[in-house]
Write a structure and sequence with these properties.
By secondary structure, this protein is an alpha+beta fold. It is built from three helices and three strands. The protein has a three-stranded mixed beta sheet with strand order 1-2-3.
């Protein structure tokens, strides 16, 4: 678990692995942290790791975006739709 506090934005980022997000002890710790954040008017954001292959998913996303850009250029649509 990684916790990043952004004082200037009153933001707390919590980064969890797949195993941590399912661990009852970790969930209990986070409940206390989130209550403290609320009391101090901080926004708590939780990021959870998934089980998919990040490399292939990122590659697919980049290819999809490139295809949309090429289509937009070919049709003269600058919004990419």
């Amino acid at each position: 678990m990684e916790i990043h506090v952004r004082e200037e934005k009153k933001l707390v980022e919590v980064w969890l692995t797949h195993e941590e997000k399912e661990n009852p002890h970790v969930r209990e710790q986070l409940t206390c942290l989130y209550q403290q954040c609320k009391a101090e008017h901080y926004l708590a954001v939780e990021f959870q790791s998934g089980r998919e292959d990040l490399t292939s998913l990122t590659s697919s996303l980049l290819c999809c975006n490139r295809n949309r850009m090429a289509h937009a250029e070919a049709t003269g649509n600058r919004n990419g739709a």
